[in-house]
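Sequence in, structure out. First:
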Amino acid sequence: MATDLFAVASGLDPAAIASAIPPACRRPVQPPPLPTRDGDDAVVDAGPWTPRTPVRHLVPSLSVLADRRYAFRFEASARRGGAWSSWSAAAAIGDATFPPLDGDGALEPAVDLWTAREPVEAIRLRLRLRADDPLALLRAPWLVTLSAWDGAPPAAPRATGVRTLGVPAVSQMADGGAVASRVCSPASVAMVLRYWGGGAEVAALAEEMFHPALDLYGVWPAAIRAAARRGVLGYLLRFPDWGAAAWCLERGFPVIASIRYEAGELTGAAIAATAGHLVVLTGYDGDSVLVNDPAAADAAGVPRRYALAELARVWLERSGVGYVLFAPSAV
């Protein structure tokens, strides 16, 4: 199984950004192309990028270190058999309506990602950004990433010693108000922001991360945007294996993992079953993973231990996606 994380950074040290990416996934961090103006939008074209193996799943993200409101959309084109597909649009993040892009079916957009009908050999990525002055916004430090995964199953996880990160516990059930059962992503982001010395209330993060068109609080790129507005960089990664996650934890980076499971698949879980849930990985201890699970009834019940083999099944063998959030000063 292979995942490549392609990155473009502006106003940030490329070596520092690379040091926050697992070596198994790391590709050279590229300097930023010159943004252009397209009507109300700033447009940044990145790539083309060639993965090590043809890929099926593409997950983009954007971090802008500026406390300003903005909206954005990613667009992608893929090459297969020497021919480029037409551009396909992912879901827009923020309060804006962008021109429609239907694509030609080569890349099938979902909420947070694209799936290729057939494995593709290269990708182009376009960022479309809208703000009061989008070109001025891009003078702030920013990071665009694209996680490209070949679709192969992960290797069986291996125990990796002991590592514990002091991530504060936050319960979505205690702090989430009327939508408590739906705000695992805002609660998980709140925990990691507090770990990095910042902070935000779950309700404020939920309001900002809510996607009204989709009626969702857990849209992955919205979480990365919310963290960056509070001074914490981040990227989305389709983790190829447990080793990449353990690498992040060893270096002090918590991982917010997107999991799903049926009843009985995750022993000791805070909720019996879920079609989609976010938890914070805070360390490991032999064949156990230390987890802050925001679905616990209160903060005291948030820290938990899940069996590594079970966590790998409900995370790495399914969505496999994680948010990696880190303070710029930590790299």
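Second:
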Amino acid sequence: MIDSIRKLGKIILLGSFLGNVLVFSDVFSLNAQEVDLPPSCQGQLPTGKVRCNYRDAKRAGDNYVGDFLNGRPHGTGIYVYTSGDRYEGEFRNGLPNGKGTYIYKNDDRLEGTFKDGLIVSGKVIFANGDRYTGTFVPVIDIGSKAVKNEPSGRGEFTFANGDRYVGEFFAGVPFGQGVFTRTDGTRCQGQFFNPALDGKGTCTFSTGLRYEGEFRGGVPHGVGTIIDSQGKRYPGSFRNGQRQGEKSK
């Protein structure tokens, strides 16, 4: 289950995936020594309904069907990659803008609102049934200067088995204040640090027991205190939900 959260930070790849879509009439790049090929299109050019195949090095073999305005995707359309991924939705000035869905070859998908090629709000739905719903914030890779949108801010990650984390995300993973609820009734609230849902705070259990301290994966792990229904406190060190020195039942 943790693997899907780790994957969440890597799946947002749209960036400027159509940021360099050629205006149909552009045949040469700014570098006179580099010849860039325009797409091969059929239909109402340069404005209207078209079908296009891209031939330049960056998009060789990609296809587009939909609306064109002045030689660029604009309106509604479908852009299909040679990898098997595709984007379906609204375009403006050659970029996804508005409502759309990006479908990965493995059936993972992004659904939501896009702005200049980046998803800004919506959901990530994994093929295994896990899903994230929330906001996305642009970040810049200092080395490559590439821009991508990652889940950051307030969001909800729901696992296929019904477990759920609701709270703060940063750089695609839980980081900050949140609540992790398991289907067995366990509820841990506090500060979370990573995809493994390590953190510290308070956990309550369906048995009436309460735990205050460090936890890992949403269970007591580290230094903490168990508090029973009468308020009696049992401090100690915990591993995988078990108080050290206490015999397993």
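Remark: The longest strand covers residues 147-158.
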